[in-house]
Amino acid sequence: MYLYRAVDSDGNTIDFYLSESRDKQTAKRFFKKALATSHVYKPRVITVDKNPAYPVVIQELKEEKRMPEGIQIRQVKYLNNMVEQDHRFIKKRVRSMLGLKSFRTATYILSGIEAMHMIKKKQVHQRVKSAQNQKEFIHKLFGLAS
Known about the structure:
Elements: E1 2-7, E2 13-19, H1 24-35, E3 45-47, H2 53-63, E4 72-74, H3 81-96, H4 103-120, H5 131-142
Parallel strand pairs: 3-4
Antiparallel strand pairs: 1-2
Helix pairs in contact: 1-2
């Protein structure tokens, strides 16, 4: 299993995606999902690890006009520290559980951890004050039908 994560320069979680594999198709699916997020307009720089699929996927997305032109791509080992620092909270939880056994369970647990971490980082918008709006926010995070 592989957890894709997108974090902005302030440390706010943009999006996350759990995949059973780490290949070109899942990377492309994640980038589409992260770029379609409502609060992401046009990133200035995308920092990724050394996965060779990323430059290929990014080029394909630019050709399909799904990613704006002029975005700088950085594949430098130590520049993705923001993502790694945000990821440590998940590692801390998962280690204490001795890992995740099934993909379905991992999806549910990681979605819950991410949601609570986003709330802790005060990423919940002011309009989510009412109980009904909180319910809709949680349903959106977990991909549930409202």
